[in-house]
Specification:
about 30% strand, alpha+beta, elongated
Length: about 130
Amino acid sequence: MAPYKIALLRTFGVLAVAWLMVNSLGPGWLTLYRIASTGQLALAKITAIDPENHLGCSFEYTVEGVLHRGHATGCSPLGVGADLQVTYAPINPTYATTENAGQVLLNQVFVPLFIAVFVGIISAIAERKSTPE
């Protein structure tokens, strides 16, 4: 098989695995898109801190009388009982974030893409060097 075809297959393989992991381990692209496009703000109350986990905290927020719980990073210095602004999607308020959902979504799409392209370029160079002419 031609070196560029092998490199292309590896690139798509890395990209598929990365995008699958991103969407299965986190809230997923659809949830992040909904928050970024139609997000509503809510005031959450920090209920626990976890400074060993990326300065994380657990929080609670209420949407239409229903209590929801979440976790965020970087908020433990605020302390238990502090208020925290979160954004949720009205269609599914079970997940809320303290981060810019649009930026997180872009990172989840483009960072794996750049990594896959880099792997593909390195793979093509390695295949070309190992293939006799």
